[in-house]
């Protein structure tokens, strides 16, 4: 999934998010349409392992490609997607909240969409001046 690589690249630039997982040590499998990617968070670093490298993990998020994309791009929160039945989360609440914060705060959208959103905010602020 290209969106996973985009998330990984974006989170490395997001210094304000890094304190959330500075002391975390967890492995979580992201399963989507027969593909498994393991997200490893350890000692302030995040890395991914693809299908053949992924190991057994006690935590897992699974669902459709669209829901996984929304999660990794930070356009929808993890627990909302779970409540809507689009994702299934097998992790304790504390871990779920940590992951939700990391995904949502990173907002790994493409640069053009981010630029367009920023321009909309600036334009709307100018209207109120």
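^ structure tokens above, recovered residues below v
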């Amino acid at each position: 999934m290209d969106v996973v690589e985009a998330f990984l690249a974006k989170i490395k630039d997001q210094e304000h998010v890094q304190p959330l997982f500075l002391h975390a040590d967890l492995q979580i499998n992201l399963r989507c349409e027969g593909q498994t990617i393991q997200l490893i968070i350890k000692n302030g670093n995040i890395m991914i392992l693809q299908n053949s490298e992924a190991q057994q993990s006690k935590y897992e998020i699974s669902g459709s490609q669209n829901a996984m994309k929304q999660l990794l791009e930070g356009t929808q929160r993890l627990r909302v997607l779970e409540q809507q039945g689009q994702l299934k989360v097998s992790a304790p609440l504390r871990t779920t909240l940590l992951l939700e914060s990391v995904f949502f705060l990173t907002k790994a959208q493409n640069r053009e969409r981010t630029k367009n959103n920023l321009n909309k905010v600036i334009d709307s602020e100018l209207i109120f001046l």
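The chain has five helices and five strands.
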